[in-house]
Design brief:
The chain has 99 residues and is α+β, with helices and mostly antiparallel strands. It contains 3 helices and 8 strands. The strands form 3 sheets. Strands 1-2-3 form a 3-stranded antiparallel sheet. It has a 3-stranded antiparallel sheet with strand order 6-7-8. Strand 2 and strand 3 form a beta hairpin. The radius of gyration is 14 Å and the shape is globular. The two termini are 16 Å apart.
């Protein structure tokens, strides 16, 4: 779990202080690249084919401009390029971050 006051933008990174006292960090560009949205990652049809998505690998200069807590399980970030449809589960944030 994350307390809303436990999230900060520090330079080019998002810092998260988890309820257990640990802290993790993730670059804003990496968060944008790994956004789990259909707009970014595409969707899979019934036969396993990817439909849509973005093949862009880098997002230089993209910043996190805001975030919203989603229930007790995720965060939705808003990025400076207008992207805001990815919902990052706490598990995904821990996978993407470093301590």
């Amino acid at each position: 779990m994350i307390n809303p006051e436990g999230i900060q933008a520090i330079g080019e990174e998002i810092a998260i202080r988890w309820d257990n006292g640990t802290e993790t960090y993730c670059s804003m560009e990496k968060l944008r690249k790994e956004s789990p949205s259909a707009e970014n990652k595409g969707e899979t049809d019934l036969t396993g084919n990817r439909i849509g998505g973005c093949d862009q690998e880098t997002f230089p200069g993209v910043k996190v401009t805001g975030w919203e807590m989603i229930g007790g399980y995720a965060i939705q970030f808003t990025f400076s390029d207008g992207h805001n449809t990815g919902i990052f589960s706490y598990d995904l944030l821990q996978e993407l971050s470093f301590s």
